[in-house]
Amino acid sequence: MTQGRLEQPSEYSAEPYVITRALIEDGRRHLLLQGATAGQSISTCPVRLLHGMEDPDVPYRHSLRLAEKLAARDLRVTLVKDGDHRLSRPEDLALLCDAVAELAQLAQLPAASSARSPSR
After folding, report:
1. Which residues lie below 8 Å from residue 41, measured CB to CB, with a gap of 6+?
2. Does residue 76 register a pLDDT over 90?
3. Torsion angle defined by CA atoms of residues 20, 23, 24 and 25, in that order, rounded to the nearest 10 degrees
């Protein structure tokens, strides 16, 4: 990464996936799981993790590990058995919209009703 960016082939687009030096440096400043113990105060707000079990890029066990480390009492992990990295099928998007709507409702935001999936 001598020019501040790395281009990798993408499974999802004809365009390459660009990883910038800024992204790597920012990530190094936010290594939430490194050294964290279970229940350490990484986050105490409600959390919803949705992960495809057929994700070739990020193993779903990362979500399970993150769930173990989070201090949030209101935490749910949803594993989509045949879901991929993007969770972009209509049924996946409905799950994502439902999770956002639920979190918005918990936060009492007016966006709770507008986050509903249009396919429902």
Report:
1. 71
2. yes
3. 120
Q: Does residue 99 sit in helix, strand or coil?
A: helix
25 domain residue, yes or no: yes
pLDDT at 112 over 50: no
Distance CA 26, CA 32 (A): 12
- Per-residue pLDDT band for 33 (boundaries 50, 70, 90) equals confident
Which range of residues forms the domain containing residue 89?
Answer: 40-112
Residues 81 and 99 in one domain: yes
Residues in contact with 114: Cβ distance below 8 Å, sequence separation at least 6, in sequence order = none
CA distance 79 to 57: 15
pTM for the whole structure: 0.74
